[in-house]
Amino acid sequence: MKIALGVGGGIAAYKAAEVARRLMERGHTVQVILTESAQQFIQPLTFAALTGQKVITGLFSEASPEATLSSSVEHIGVAQESDLLLVAPATADLLAKFAHGLAPDFLSTTYLAFTGPVVLAPAMNSNMWQHPATQANVAVLRQRPGHHLIAPDSGLLACGTTGPGRLAEPDQIAAFVDAVAHPRHDLEGETILITAGPTQEPLDPVRYITNRSSGKMGYALAEAARDRGARVVLITGPVHIEEPAGVEMVHVRTAQQMREAVMAQLDQASIIIKAAAVADYHVVDVPDQKVKKSALRLSLNLDPTPDILAEAGRRKGDRLLIGFAAETQNLVAEARRKLETKHCDMVVGNLVNSTSTGFESDMNEVTLVMSTGETVEVPAAAKRAIADVIFDHALRLRLALHGAA
Ligand code: CTP
């Protein structure tokens, strides 16, 4: 597929070279368009060497003295020849231009002339990202047909602050582009119930017990299922991720609330995926008032929370039930134990004591343990890519267990 890669002027522009490389590895042809300010951060030659294509650097820069009509309307040509327009990094300025239809340069002119799918990967300083003007532009672009936005990650930014605004990982962007480029509709007609994130168990009106789950894996599963044509119900604990468009959201806080939401939706679902990191204990008799400090030792009186996955296992019928096992050791043995005791069809095991994969990361590395006895190791990849692999195996497993519907 021919991809036009627009690169905006931000410190993340250097990462666009890696994005181009990942796209090439996936078999795409990449035509790079650098804005003028992007050229302050990265040389056109870098992209030319990587992509084997002439890099476009300006509206009129290619026009020779005997400029013809065809060279002055090159942006129309790029727009017509490309199958997908990816902009990474999409700066606040570019988002504003796209949202309002301004076209002072080659990239924004190509954007206006382009009629295919557009993928925007914003990157900027946190305050610029969170500014109401940027957020209003993002809201406009999200609603525009054929537009897809890869939300920026949170983390340490080049300006020294920490917060949302970091360009998503190149591998994640390339996987996202592939998912947009080759939409599969193999989940059409299905209702997929997914739980995500941590739960919070109150200690008193102002304090709670929780865990490090970010919800990213569950949200990636919801997006993958939606893109493959499913109706998706996402039951989520409190997380800091943007809500995926086109997904039915149910917000909960405690394990008990998550249980009620899951049981209320279970009958409608054909596949249930419990990616949430549910708290195992809750405080008995939560006080109405804030607990006051004293010099004495304080003990918590904890009761187990309901095991939602185990209950779903008892009620599932022919539904495909997929659990998660977050482990720090004995991954496969623990995943298989949970598979058997909770009557799952598949358990996705992941080691959570690594910093590059697991809880807060955008990447994951998992082992799929199946009720057929099969075990599949999925190498490290973006959570969105892992989500698609999980669905690929889930569909194959269902066929093996129940035959064609
Ligand atoms: N789970 C659940 N309800 C709970 C606890 C866990 O539905 N009260 C689900 C999780 O959503 C996950 C699976 O069970 O799909 C495994 O969760 P995990 O925390 O790894 O296992 P536990 O059963 O809690 O066992 P342990 O904490 O001993 O590892």
Tell me what you see in this structure.
By secondary structure, the protein is α/β, with parallel strands linked by helices. The chain folds into two domains: 2-181, Rossmann fold, CATH 3.40.50.1950; 191-402, CoaB-like (Rossmann fold, 3-Layer(aba) Sandwich). The chain has helices at residues 13-25, 38-41, 44-51, 69-72, 74-81, 92-100, 106-113, 126-130, 132-143, 170-181, 216-227, 255-265, 308-315, 331-341, 383-402, and strands spanning 2-7, 29-34, 84-90, 118-122, 147-149, 153-156, 162-166, 191-196, 201-204, 207-209, 231-236, 248-251, 271-274, 281-283, 302-304, 320-327, 346-351, 363-370, 375-382. The strands form five sheets. The protein has an eight-stranded mixed sheet, sandwiched between helices. A five-stranded parallel sheet has the order 2-1-3-4-5, sandwiched between helices. It has a two-stranded antiparallel sheet with strand order 6-7. A hairpin with a 4-residue loop joins strand 18 (363-370) and strand 19. Helix 6 (92-100) crosses helix 9 (132-143). The radius of gyration is 24 Å and the shape is globular. It starts with a strand and ends with a helix. The relative contact order is 0.09. The model is unreliable at 63-71 (pLDDT under 50). Cytidine-5'-triphosphate binds at residues 255, 274, 276, 278, 280, 305, 307-309, 323-326, 338.
